[in-house]
Amino acid sequence: MKIVDYKEVKAEAVDFEDAKDVKVRWLVSDKDKAPNFAMRL
After folding, report:
1. Is 7:25 a contact under the CB 8 Å cutoff?
2. Coil, strand or helix at 18
3. Residue 34: which residues within 8 A CB-CB, separation 6 or more?
4. What's the rounded Cα separation, in Å, for the pair 15 and 40?
5. Which of 7, 22, 26, 34 is deepest in the core (most CB within 10 A)?
6. 11 inside domain
7. Rounded Cα gap, residues 9 and 26, in angstroms
8. Residue-wise pLDDT tens digits, 7-41
9. Is residue 24 classed as helix, strand or coil in its secondary structure?
10. How many structural domains is the chain composed of?
């Protein structure tokens, strides 16, 4: 189980043509050894 304050997760820029000045925080991803699940804020 991963417990972390969302403010501690680095906000990354979104790389989409229509998304300007948008950032996302990947709270759970494949970096957390969760290949079939993602949680973003």
Report:
1. no
2. coil
3. 28
4. 15
5. 26
6. yes
7. 7
8. 999 999 998 888 889 999 999 999 999 999 999 99
9. strand
10. 1
